[in-house]
Amino acid sequence: MAAYVIGHISVKDAVKWAEYKRGVPATIVPFGGELVLRGQRKAVLGGEHRHTDTVVIRFPAIEAVDEWFHSDAYQQLIPLRLQAADVDLISYEAAL
């Protein structure tokens, strides 16, 4: 069953964020990950949402998400991510 990682993002440092974004794709490929969406918020249609950007990454299974997140390659990017942006990163298992 497919799994997704959704990141809600508020960029603090655009240069560092660009560097982080360049590094992420190479970390997801070994786990069957695919970047589905990178976008900026245009409107909040209901409720509240504090972040300006969103990313959606699809993986073949929830186990692949865990393996990716805990991989050395991704763990090395986390300090850069923390400097570059405030990110809420959430994993979901598809229910369809």
From TrEMBL:
This is DUF1330 domain-containing protein. Gene3D superfamilies: 3.30.70.100. Residues 3-91 form the DUF1330 domain. It comes from the Bacteria.
